[in-house]
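Quick one, T. Sequence first:
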Amino acid sequence: MGLGYFDKSVVLHRVSLIVVAVAIAIAIVIVICSPRCTSEPAASPRDPAKEDLSRVEYPSSTGIAWGPHFIRPQDSLERLFAGDWVHVARFNRIDRRHAYPGMTIKVPKRMEEIRRYKPLPIFYEPARKHPKYILVDVNEQWIGAYEYGLLRFSVPAATGTEKHPTPAGLFRVDAHHRTHTSSLYKTEKGDMQYPMDYAFRFYVGPDDVAFWAHARDMPGRPASHGCIGLYDENMQKRVYGYPDKPVLDDAKRLYGWVLGPERLSDDSGELQIMEDGPLLEVKGPLPRYLDRPPKSPS
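Structure tokens:
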């Protein structure tokens, strides 16, 4: 004899209650065991693409109170920080094109602490006797221009990675090439060789591979194949069409300082040899990339 209408309704009601109870139990387990699944958007705990810049550990940032900020689709450095966006970008060693949704950056809790942020020493003893001396601190991802030991100016840099390190040691700049282009690497689209504007050469390896300091993208961490990269938003606008109003031009500034006014006025833009270029020192280990997000400094 089959179930009556009433009996079927009771069975269905009981089944529904069981399904709801199981769903609630699963939700409780998710919240307890994996709160990230229900929390605010944040970087991946595994972060295989290394997009969480709060995990990049720079010695100079340990004394500055900061917190992580996950960039959302409506965010941009300008919208988030108004006129201080330049300081936040430099603090993170990142350009505006790479401050895209999904990135996590360090945001200082007191903006005045990074407005004069200089990770390098104001006076550097090895540079004392030299009219021009360039220091590249790999650990800080920062480059400084010294005149007789005094820091004239300093800017963020992007050096080589662990697989493609920037050569360490003391070198002499021996060539400059304002319109240099990579012979080995292409842009992301693959439709042109990678531009290396405002380039000056400091080393040629035994395999005839040259190492330069030049304009490049700045993703907020070591990223090159051994060269030293600096900001140049004019190059990025020319190649990628962004940013609309270029501001950062560190590569151009350092290039002009290396050449000096007289040589710069005669610069043809083509490759030229320098017999009296400044010394360039590369020192320090790569910054550590932490396995998990750090606790926010107080």
